[in-house]
TrEMBL record:
Keywords: Monooxygenase, Oxidoreductase. SUPFAM superfamilies: FAD/NAD(P)-binding domain. Residues 6-311 form the FAD-binding domain. It comes from Permianibacter aggregans. This is 2-polyprenyl-6-methoxyphenol hydroxylase-like FAD-dependent oxidoreductase. It comes from the Bacteria. It holds the Pfam family FAD_binding_3. InterPro entries: FAD-bd (IPR002938), FAD-dep_Monooxygenase_BioMet (IPR050493), FAD/NAD-bd_sf (IPR036188).
Length: 397
């Protein structure tokens, strides 16, 4: 395809990875983001083998590995202290592992790769409306492109401009999270979770090196219904810390280091679109397929979106056709993860009395080799092949 002028709205994982790929193909790529600059903000993310493959392709994996924590297993224990989840990456493939990474490191490496490939990133540029391929930027500037890629995350309103049947629903649960530094926390290579029924869940993800201090850091997550968030804010912070320490006494060294002004609220949404392209406009990442966080795949799917788009662009000489082919190629994988996450959600975040069912099924599935293999493949981000329910054999190689 000859060089196209392409606007990408959003310098998150999806937008920056896509910018790298398309700039390498000699397209004239401009990324717009509302933030003034990339800063040391954000939570820890768990990069699966699927996402790592894309980062390797972009030349960013080595730096991410140096700044991240290697994760060998996910381990979940219920309030009776019975281990109900135990997934080891090496059971999927001898050399497979996850990487816990601070979002700031990932954004910085992806932005550097995009710029090195020739993309332009414009920070402080809020895109307020989209008409065909013309953007309105900061409410006074208009700029037209050959193609527009919408990658501005879960709260995107710009995707409404596409003529695509779509459904967006805020998810009734969210999570409080904090980044805590610690030299002593002993669990440096496992994502740990604690559950009480489906209502209470806490997690600790080793998150590599803190982007400011360079010390080892950890992401703490506490699940909460969105409707309880205002009540949580009005209560004394130490009361919540006491609640967490009762819930998970061994995590006390991390819990007591949390500062009230460094605990953030994350809300989620389900976004389902019938397809992701509308002529020369395409929607990717969370803006296209945000889902509940149960499967921890958002960032990995965003990276895969970029890689698939790169491959269809390379093989096509018409951008509209390339975008249509992208929708076709992504449908099965995205539908699979959206459906799986919707089914799993009430088992992890709900007021239903289903915690025992989740614990029992997790326990049993950890001991049934075939079910365990499927769980591992889903975790690793194995892509679903054209045959429904089947997984590609090379997915964690
Ligand atoms: C607390 C938390 C923990 C998570 N943990 C994990 C995990 O462990 N593993 C995992 O795979 N996923 C995780 N996720 C999900 C993951 O972060 C997202 O799926 C992923 O970041 C999606 O990337 P994106 O590029 O689509 O969107 P984003 O990263 O949200 O980027 C969107 C960008 O668009 C910009 N923008 C928005 N509106 C405009 C506008 N109008 N004009 C210009 N710019 C705009 C924003 O400033 C932002 O930079 C987590 C999410 C949260 C909140």
């Amino acid at each position: 395809m000859h060089a196209q002028r392409i606007a990408i709205i959003g310098a998150g994982t999806a937008g920056l990875a896509t910018a790298s790929y398309l700039a390498k193909q000699q397209h004239d790529v401009t990324v717009f983001d509302q933030i003034p600059r990339q800063g040391p903000v954000g939570a820890g993310l768990l990069l699966q083998p699927s996402g790592q493959r894309v980062l390797a392709d972009l030349g960013a994996l080595d730096a991410i590995q140096q700044q991240g924590s290697r994760i060998d297993a996910l381990h979940g224990v219920n309030h009776w202290r019975i281990p109900v989840l135990h997934l080891r990456y090496r059971d999927a493939a001898a050399d497979a592992f996850g990487i816990g990474i601070h979002r700031a490191h990932l954004a910085r490496e992806l932005a550097a790769a995009a710029v090195a490939a020739g993309a332009t990133i414009r920070y402080g540029a809020t895109v307020s409306t989209l008409s065909d391929c013309t953007l309105e930027i900061n409410e006074h500037q208009r700029q037209s492109f050959d193609a527009v890629i919408i990658a501005n995350g879960t709260r995107s309103l710009l995707s409404n401009a596409l003529r695509i049947p779509q459904r967006k629903a805020p998810y009734p649960w969210g999570a409080l999270w904090a980044i805590v530094e610690s030299e002593e926390w002993p669990e440096r290579q496992r994502l740990l979770q604690r559950y009480r029924g489906a209502r209470h869940m806490m997690g600790v993800l080793p998150t590599g090196l803190h982007p400011v201090t360079g010390r080892p850091c950890y992401s703490l997550f506490w699940s909460l219904p969105s409707s309880d968030y205002m009540r949580w804010r009005s209560e004394p912070f130490h009361r919540w810390q006491d609640q967490l320490q009762d819930f998970w006494p061994e995590a006390k060294p991390l819990i007591e280091r949390m500062q009230a002004d460094q605990v953030y609220w994350a809300s989620y949404a389900d976004i389902v679109m019938k397809r992701w392209h509308d002529q020369n406009r395409l929607c990717i990442g969370d803006a296209a397929h945000a889902m509940s966080p149960q499967l921890g795949q958002g960032v990995n799917l965003a990276l895969q979106d970029a890689q698939v788009l790169s491959s269809v662009m390379q093989r096509s000489d018409n951008i509209g056709q390339a975008f249509a082919e992208y929708s076709r190629q992504r449908r099965r994988t995205l539908n699979f993860y959206q459906t799986a996450s919707r089914w799993m959600t009430p088992l992890y975040q709900s007021t239903w009395p289903v915690g025992w069912l989740r614990d029992l099924s997790s326990l049993v599935s950890c001991h049934l080799p075939m079910v365990k293999t499927i769980n591992l493949r889903v975790l690793c981000g194995g892509k679903v092949t054209e045959k429904a329910g089947a997984f590609s054999p090379e997915m964690v190689s």
